[in-house]
């Protein structure tokens, strides 16, 4: 029984007990009072009648008239005169009197008043004894009226007490409800504080819980800061703040194979290598501090270029070489030319301008390219730029291409999508995600598109970027959810589906998804919905509302390709996330990278402290799998998972 029901029951029991006690005492005292009054009336009437008869002649007619005169008033049940030898001289009796008092009430509260007696004298002799018994109907009538009054007052007092009790309980319930909500938020990995209530007992509880939440939140922030510093130390160049060579190589390997790239990653782009010339001469003239300031300016310039979209990356390969990955760009030559102008503007003015400041080599990439071949071609482009002259750039326009991709412009792609949606040329392929014990945690569903009838099936990374440009991710994701519901209805187990951030931020399609899933509440408990990390931070408010809506439906919510925006992780602590999928760039070669192991171990501990499970993707071999499980990850998936 709930606390409030118990309080209400206590209020009702106290009220009823008070009423019953007050009613019993009042009825008993009133009945006793009425019996005393009737007894006195009987005595007075008997004395008056005896005195009147004593002064008159004692013939039967006179006596009868005297008794009748008193009896006809209707207030008496019996009036009798008895001689000294016990003979009844005269008697009047009335057994029944009509009354409005219910019979059950009369039986429940009987009134028994003692009869009044008086001596009748005849000269100096005793003539007889008069006995008077009054009717109790008037007393019962008075008692009944008092009972009605008591009941009315009780109902009024009960209603007033109920109103007061309701107000008091409501006053108690609000802070209790807030504390319950706070406790539920903690279980959902959200840290909320509440205002302290005025009730002293509840105030102490609320203060204690608030202190606990603050300590948990502060500890989380401290751990996040520590891991952020470790992340920066491991993956970033200490001088420029850009990504270092190891991070760049891991990222490049993760975006080139189509199966491992994020659905939001571009299908192609350009890779630029920027080389600073005469760095040793610059260092000799500017000194260590001045050279570092120059490198910081270059790093800031390249970092600003990379920050324009979340899928770009700027890195420092070594002392004089920098690299940029720019997806979704058409005119690579124009971009390289503009970047060259901006870089040469930073050229130091020392004993005249250093004319030959930098060279840029660029090459187009497409997922499916080989990493070593791509980098070799990029070096060739850089060497060509160096032979072309001062501050030159060169772009290798040839590209490997993907035989699965239909050669088409953006207009043709719109027709491909419309036809595929109308004819449902979509399907899902499933990859198992297992826990450390080897049991299946869930299946990860990857979408495939047949752009042309009887054509090959394209991976998500081949077409999602184009769908986003055409504002068609909503219909595609809606189709994915419909396909995902089919195996959930026919098979056991749980299923994870990736959604585009464009769909999350589109209220119309997101509401359509919610309406669709609301029809299958049992299936929602087995459905895992995940959003790419860059999208979750880019549309944080939309993602926050998405988490609230779909968690209410019973779905699990997670973030995939996590790790690139780790410094902002604390923004997600109040969303109630269920899981994180670590980006492949942190997983590749984890068995050989001690620093990455430290980072992932700390990340697992931090996530586990707020109830979030951590899953690694793109696991290549058994050595990586064993290392990840040893570090505390809750699940792994990839081509090397057995």
From TrEMBL:
Keywords: Membrane, Transmembrane, Transmembrane helix. The keyword Membrane applies. Residues 410-642 form the EAL domain. The chain crosses the membrane at residues 150-169. CDD domains: EAL (cd01948), GGDEF (cd01949). Residues 267-398 form the GGDEF domain. Pfam families: EAL, GGDEF, LapD_MoxY_N. It comes from the Bacteria. The keyword Ribosomal protein does not apply. Residues 170-221 form the HAMP domain. This is Diguanylate cyclase/phosphodiesterase.
């Amino acid at each position: 029984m709930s606390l409030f029901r118990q309080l209400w029951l206590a209020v009702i029991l106290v009220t009823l007990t008070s009423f019953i006690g007050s009613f019993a005492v009042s009825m008993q005292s009133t009945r006793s009072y009425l019996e005393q009054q009737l007894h006195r009336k009987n005595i007075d009437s008997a004395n008056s009648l005896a005195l009147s008869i004593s002064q008159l002649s004692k013939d039967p007619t006179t006596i009868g008239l005297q008794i009748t005169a008193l009896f006809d008033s209707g207030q008496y049940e019996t009036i009798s005169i008895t001689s000294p030898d016990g003979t009844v001289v005269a008697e009047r009796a009335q057994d029944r009197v009509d009354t409005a008092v219910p019979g059950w009430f009369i039986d429940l509260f009987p009134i028994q008043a003692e009869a009044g007696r008086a001596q009748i004298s005849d000269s100096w002799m005793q003539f007889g004894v008069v006995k008077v018994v009054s009717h109790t109907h008037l007393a019962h009538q008075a008692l009944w009226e008092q009972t009605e009054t008591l009941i009315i007052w009780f109902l009024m007092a009960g209603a007033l007490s109920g109103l007061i009790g309701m107000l008091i309980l409501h006053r108690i319930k609000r802070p209790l409800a807030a504390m319950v909500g706070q406790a539920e938020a903690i279980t959902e990995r959200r840290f909320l504080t509440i205002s302290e209530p005025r009730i002293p007992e509840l105030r102490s509880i609320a203060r204690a819980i608030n202190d606990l939440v603050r300590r948990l939140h502060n500890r989380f922030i401290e751990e996040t800061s520590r891991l952020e510093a470790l992340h920066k130390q491991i993956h970033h160049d200490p001088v420029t703040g850009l990504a270092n060579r190891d991070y760049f190589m891991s990222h490049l390997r993760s975006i080139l194979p189509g199966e491992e790239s994020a659905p939001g990653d571009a299908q192609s782009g350009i890779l630029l290598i920027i080389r600073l010339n005469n760095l040793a001469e610059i260092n000799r003239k500017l000194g260590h501090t001045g050279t570092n300031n120059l490198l910081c300016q270059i790093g800031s310039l390249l970092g600003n270029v990379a920050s324009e979209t979340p899928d770009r990356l700027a890195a420092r390969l070594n002392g004089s070489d920098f690299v940029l990955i720019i997806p979704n760009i058409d005119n690579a030559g124009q971009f390289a030319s503009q970047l060259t102008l901006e870089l040469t503007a930073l050229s130091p003015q020392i004993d005249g301008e250093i004319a030959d400041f930098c060279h840029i080599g660029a090459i187009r990439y497409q997922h499916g390219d080989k990493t070593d071949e791509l980098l070799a071609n990029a070096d060739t482009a850089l060497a060509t730029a160096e032979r072309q002259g001062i501050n030159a750039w060169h772009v290798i326009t040839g590209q490997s291409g993907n035989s699965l991709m239909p050669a088409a412009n953006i207009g043709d792609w719109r027709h491909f999508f419309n036809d595929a949606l109308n004819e449902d040329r979509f399907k899902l392929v499933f990859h198992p995600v297992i826990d450390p014990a080897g049991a299946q945690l869930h299946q990860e569903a990857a979408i495939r598109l047949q752009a042309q009838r009887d054509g090959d099936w394209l991976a998500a990374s081949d077409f999602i970027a184009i769908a986003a440009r055409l504002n068609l991710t909503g219909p595609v994701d809606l189709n994915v959810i419909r396909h995902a519901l089919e195996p959930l209805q026919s098979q056991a187990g749980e299923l994870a589906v990736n959604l585009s951030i464009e769909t999350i931020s589109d209220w119309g399609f997101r509401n359509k998804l919610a309406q669709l899933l609301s029809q299958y509440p049992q299936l929602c408990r087995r459905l895992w919905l995940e959003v790419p990390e860059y999208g979750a931070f880019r549309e944080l408010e939309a993602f926050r509302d998405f988490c609230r809506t779909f968690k209410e439906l019973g779905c699990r919510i997670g973030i995939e390709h996590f790790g690139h925006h780790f410094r902002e992780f604390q923004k997600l602590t109040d969303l109630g996330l269920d899981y994180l999928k670590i980006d492949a760039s942190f997983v590749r070669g984890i068995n050989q990278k001690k620093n990455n192991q430290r980072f992932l171990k700390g990340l697992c501990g931090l996530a586990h402290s707020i109830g979030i499970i951590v899953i690694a993707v793109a696991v290549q071999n058994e050595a990586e799998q064993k290392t990840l499980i040893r570090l505390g990850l809750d699940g792994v998936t990839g081509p090397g998972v057995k």
